[in-house]
Amino acid sequence: MVNNSAEQNVITHDFFMIIKRHYKIILSVTLFFILFSLSLSLFKQKVYKSTFTIDSYLTKMIFNDKGEKYSLIDVSDIEKIIKVFDLIYNNSHNYTLTFSDKRKWYFHELKKITVSRLKEESSTLEIEIYTFDNSMINAIADSLITFINNNPYIKRLVESEKQRLTTEQKIYEKNIAEMDVLKRTLYTENNGNMNFINFNIYNDIVNLTQKKSNVELILNKCKGVEYMTKPVIPLEPYGFSTFQNIIIFLIMGILIGIFIAYLYEKLRFAK
């Protein structure tokens, strides 16, 4: 135990002696790293990150007449369209998107867009925008939504589903009208006595009306992609701040400086 303690003291003493003899090397290396950190902070383009979520009726699970569950489009198809948007930009910085009111956005400020599912089985997608100008985040997010909804495949699905729901709504309206006529006829012919009917026509009308209301509700929701949460404008750039970079590079400079001094000392005595 005594020998081990003595050896540790010698090693510690040698370590501090190396630092004392070669402190200039350590300071020079540390100063280099600090200056390198400052140059990175000054000349590196600032990037801002914002996250928002989107969802679509098209990706929701619905039931057909047989009670089978299905969705009109898979979430992965939406992901692919978002990646196409990012790919178009990355291949051409002159890419523009024209809105219906003829406005145009030029995406020189966009760095990249990433997409992931909020949960494994969820239809909600989380979008991350990385941009050089935080004031353009909302414009880019709106443009992405417009780009998805203007996709021919998405537009065709929405129109087809609206047509199906509208037809279903008209069928319910027709059935309700026929049932109402039957109710009035029976009521008139039997002087208001409905006891001989083996089913409750009033409940049938109520059920049909409820189904029609459900279809109308779904019809209002039958759209392309919509925001679940809006993007938040970040005030600070994404990543480490200048102060954090200096601290990290300061520690790196000291450690690497000590290593170089130790290596120099070993090589000097090896000769």
Topology:
Blueprint (H helix, E strand, L loop, with lengths): L1 H20 L1 H21 L4 E9 L5 E2 L5 E2 L4 H17 L4 E3 L5 E3 L3 E8 L7 E7 L5 H13 L2 H38 L11 H21 L3 E5 L12 H29 L1
Antiparallel strand pairs: 1-7, 1-8, 2-3, 4-5, 6-7
Helix pairs in contact: 2-7, 5-6
Question: What this model shows, in words?
Answer:
It is a single chain. Helix content is 59%, strand content 14%. The protein folds into two domains: 15-44 and 239-270; 48-229. It starts with a helix and ends with a helix. It is built from seven helices and eight strands, in the order ααβββαββββαααβα. α2 packs antiparallel against α7 (242-270) and α5 (152-189) packs antiparallel against α6. With 271 residues, it is α+β, with helices and mostly antiparallel strands. The strands form three sheets. It has a four-stranded antiparallel sheet, with helices on one face. The model is unreliable at 97-103 (pLDDT under 50).
Short description:
This protein is an alpha+beta fold.
Q: If helices are DSSP runs of H or I spanning 4 or more residues, what is the number of helices? A: 7
Rg estimate, integer Å:
35 Å
Task: Give the domain tally.
Answer: 2
Uncertain regions spanning at least 5 consecutive residues: 97-103
What is the strand tally? 8
Broad shape: rod-shaped
Largest beta-sheet details: 4 strands, antiparallel
Structural category: alpha+beta
**How are the strands of the largest sheet arranged?**
6-7-1-8
Intertermini distance: 34 Å
Helicity level: 55-70%
The succession of helices and strands, N to C, reads HHEEEHEEEEHHHEH
On the 0 to 100 scale, the average pLDDT is 77
Strand content bin: 5-15%
